Amino acid sequence: MLKAEKPFYFKTQLSLVMLTGLKAKNLRELRDHLSVVPESSVYYHTHHFLQQHQFLTPEPPNDFAFWTTNVLQEDRMGERLAAIDTVRFDSLEDLRTAIAGAIDRFLHENPTVRECPPGEEFHFMKSILFDLPTELVARNLAEFRDCLRKVTISSLYYHIFTGRLRQPLGVNDFSDWLNHNGEHELARQIDKLDPYTQTMEGLRQRILLLVEKRLKEEATHVTA
To answer: 91: which DSSP letter?
Structure first.
């Protein structure tokens, strides 16, 4: 990619967290409220750990798994919820369905539910996201590498995680841009990286290594 058809504009995001007013004291109430809360609530409870605990590895649990395990002491159910690969779903609605299905199956097997101690109810929150531009723009792969070295963790999170929930669904912003500019193999390699097995900073370094390798291949091809 000597020159991109369209530049890549690096963005970042801010979030405003709000209470929904819904709370659950057991798994049945958690399941009932999960079916009616907005997608912004599903997003908050399954994604904010990834951004706030950016230096932790391996993966932190989602809020549903954390509460089920540590408050309700339902370890088996907590393990099932923690095992749901939240970033691999193409939409928040599909993710909601997967979580609800896991709870439904557990409740079918265990009709008697445990209730949490008073004051430890699960409070449903929602996250309102605001997109913000940065001054970083890439018009080719070398500029993309240089910008990637400078962007904040919040910007990385925006393009890798939140990007998968925008059109085209299931594709991070970096891979989408690279695909549009003919860098299909590099796009595929970045999309295959597992964000759960490394920190956000580690993920940045893995992407940079892939881009550097491609730049060397491009330079070799030009001089040949």
So the answer is: S
Contact by Cβ (8 Å): 41, 125: yes
| 150 and 204 Cβ atoms separated by less than 8 Å | no
Residue 52 pLDDT grade (very low, low, confident, very high; cuts 50, 70, 90): low
pTM: 0.74
C-beta pairs of 30-35 under 8 Å, 24+ apart in sequence: 30/64, 30/67, 30/68, 30/103, 30/122, 31/100, 31/103, 31/104, 31/107, 33/124, 34/64, 34/96, 34/99, 34/100, 34/103, 35/96, 35/100
Label the pairing between strands 122-138 and 8-24. Answer: antiparallel
Higher pLDDT, 35 or 170: 35
Reference 20, options 35, 32, 38; nearest CA is 38
